[in-house]
Design goal:
The chain has 253 residues and is α+β, with helices and mostly antiparallel strands. It has a single domain, classed as Alpha-Beta Complex (Isoleucyl-tRNA Synthetase, domain 2), CATH 3.90.740.10. 28% of the residues lie in helices and 23% in strands. The structure holds ligand A2H. The site of ligand A2H has 20 residues, from strand 2, strand 9 and helix 6. Belongs to the class-I aminoacyl-tRNA synthetase family.
Length: 253
C-alpha cells in the first residue's frame, strides 16, 4: 500500500437476468460486478470481466437501487465513502465465491460488445481494488495474456467450467493508438517480450510499465465520442460522463 490514496473508477457491470440458482435471491434487483479501473477511457474495448476463482466475494446493498458484488474489504471501504445502504456498515445480502461468478453474462458501460462474460484470472489480488477487474486486452498486458491463456488452453477452460462461447468469439479490439506500439499495444508488447502466461509476473510488470505511461502521454483515441483526441484529454471527459450517467462511481483506498 502506498502513502497516497489510490482513486479508482468502479465500473458497474450489470448482470443480465435470469440469474443462476446461486444468485436467485438477488433477482429483481439491479446487481453489478463492480470493477476497479485506472483506465476508464478504455471501456469501449471490454471483452470480459475477471474474477479470482478462489476469491471470497459478497453481494452488498449500496443504496435503495443497487447491489454491488465485490470483496468484503472493498465493501467496508465503500461504506465509509457514502456507498452503503447503512452508513459505515456493509450490508451483505449473499456470500459468494469467484466460482459462483464465472460465466455470468454482463452488460458493461461503453463496451462495444453488448454481452460479455465473467471469467477466471488467477493473478487477481484480493487486497486491492474490489477483486473484480474488467478486461481490455487491447491495452492491458495482464488482460491480453489471461484471455490468450483461456483461448489457447482448452484444459484451462475445462478446469474452470468456462464455455467456449464465453471466450472464443471475443477478439482484441483496437481503441487507442500509441505511435510506438500501434493499435493493440498490449498484444504487441506481450509478443515482443515473449510473455507466455499470465503468471509471467516480471515480464508483465515490464509490459505494463511500457504501455501504461505511453498510453497516457502518447495515446490517441480511435473510437467513441472523443475519437481523434489525445488520451490525456479524453480520459477525464469519459470519466465524468460515466459518473454523471450513474454508470460508475469513484472509490479510494
Ligand atoms: B486497469 P494498480 Cl486497459 N488485482 O483497468 C489485479 N489487478 C487489478 C486489481 C486487482 N485486485 N484491481 C484492479 N486491477 C487492474 C484497465 C486497464 C488497467 C488497462 C491498462 C492497464 C491497467 C482494464 N483492465 O492497469 O496496481 C485494473 O486494470 C495497469 C496498472 O492499482 C486497474 O486498471 O495501479 C489496475 O490493475 C490497478 O492497478
Amino acid at each position: 500500500e502506498g502513502v497516497l490514496p489510490q482513486e479508482y473508477v468502479l465500473i458497474k457491470m450489470e448482470i443480465i437476468p435470469p440469474f443462476p440458482q446461486k444468485l436467485k435471491v438477488l433477482e429483481g434487483k439491479k446487481v453489478y460486478l463492480a470493477a476497479a479501473t485506472l483506465r476508464p477511457e478504455t471501456m469501449y474495448g471490454q471483452t470480459n470481466c475477471w474474477v479470482l476463482p478462489d476469491g471470497k466475494y459478497g453481494a452488498f446493498e449500496i443504496n435503495e437501487a443497487d447491489v454491488f458484488i465485490l470483496t468484503e474489504r472493498a465493501a467496508l471501504n465503500l461504506s465509509y465513502q457514502n456507498l452503503s445502504k447503512i452508513p459505515e456498515k456493509p450490508m451483505c445480502l449473499l456470500e459468494l465465491s469467484g466460482y459462483d461468478l464465472i460465466g455470468l453474462p454482463l452488460k458493461s458501460p461503453l463496451a462495444f460488445n453488448e454481452v460479455i462474460y465473467s471469467l477466471p484470472m488467477l493473478t487477481i489480488l484480493t487486497d486491492k481494488g474490489t477483486g473484480i477487474v474488467t478486461s481490455v486486452p487491447s491495452d492491458s498486458p495482464d488482460d491480453y495474456r489471461a484471455l490468450q491463456d483461456l483461448k489457447s488452453k482448452p484444459d484451462f477452460r475445462k478446469k474452470y467450467r468456462v464455455n467456449d462461447e464465453w471466450v472464443l468469439p471475443f477478439e482484441v479490439f483496437p481503441i487507442i493508438n500509441i505511435p510506438e506500439f500501434g493499435d493493440k499495444s498490449a498484444e504487441k508488447v506481450c509478443n515482443d517480450l515473449k510473455i507466455k502466461s499470465q503468471n509471467d509476473k516480471e515480464k508483465l510488470a515490464e509490459a505494463k510499465r511500457l504501455t501504461y505511461l505511453k498510453g497516457f502521454t502518447d495515446g490517441t483515441m480511435l473510437v467513441g465520442e472523443f475519437k481523434g483526441k489525445k488520451v490525456q484529454e479524453a480520459k477525464p471527459l469519459i470519466k465524468s460522463k460515466l459518473l454523471e450517467a450513474g454508470l460508475a462511481v469513484l472509490y479510494s483506498e
